Recover the amino acids of this structure.
């Protein structure tokens, strides 16, 4: 009898019905070590309902993380030799000598930039994801703290300097083997004080009222970017 499975597309998307609820499929194909989930092509995901979206509930994120890790961590990064699954530690691999190789997780920072003495925050439209506005984000460099990384990314992408950088929350982001670290900071720079790296097509200062009225499209519900923006609107 075919087994009921959730299928996950290459970007972590699930087929959903008109109400946005995930739709399962049936398959005879085994999916190890997650018998209820398998990764397939984007075409197969959309073939079920014609609709698909990323799913952000914790269990789905964990499954996507394991599937991504299994695909990416097949060889020892030092020797190039094949790795074997660890018998008791999910996600961990072992070399032929028994040494453990842990999953790669790339930390990235994302956060709100508030204009000093105001209730405006800065949102940007990324050149690679130009259909919506989001918070400024980027990967942490070697030797950086989260606070330093966020200040550098904001300066590079928006040309603004930060003070009072604070950690808020985090969210696993297995679509790129990352963990997103949410921040909040203050800037005195209403306008850029230097040239930017061109990653953002535009930036805008937006108030809670404007965000609630939907004057710009926002990131998908369930993402840390969406959560941090919505919290600002409360």
């Amino acid at each position: 009898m075919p087994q009921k499975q959730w299928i996950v597309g290459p970007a972590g998307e699930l087929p959903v019905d008109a109400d946005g609820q995930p739709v399962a499929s049936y398959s005879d194909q085994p999916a190890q070590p997650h018998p209820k989930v398998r990764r397939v092509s984007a075409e197969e995901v959309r073939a079920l309902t014609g609709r698909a979206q990323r799913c952000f509930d914790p269990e789905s994120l964990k499954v996507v993380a394991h599937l991504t890790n299994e695909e990416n961590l097949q060889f020892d990064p030092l020797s190039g030799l094949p790795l074997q699954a660890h018998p008791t530690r999910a996600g961990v691999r072992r070399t032929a000598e028994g040494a453990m190789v842990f999953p790669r997780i790339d930390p990235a920072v994302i956060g709100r930039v508030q204009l000093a003495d105001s209730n405006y925050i800065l949102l940007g439209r990324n050149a690679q994801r130009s259909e919506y506005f989001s918070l400024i984000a980027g990967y942490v460099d070697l030797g950086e703290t989260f606070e330093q990384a966020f200040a550098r990314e904001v300066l590079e992408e928006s040309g603004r300097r930060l003070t009072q950088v604070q950690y808020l929350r985090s969210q696993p982001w297995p679509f790129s083997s990352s963990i997103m670290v949410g921040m909040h900071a203050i800037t005195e720079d209403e306008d850029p004080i230097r040239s930017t790296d061109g990653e953002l097509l535009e930036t805008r200062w937006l108030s809670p009222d404007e965000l609630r009225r939907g004057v710009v499209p926002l990131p998908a519900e369930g993402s840390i970017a969406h959560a941090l923006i919505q919290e600002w609107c409360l």
Summary: Residues 3-101 form one domain.
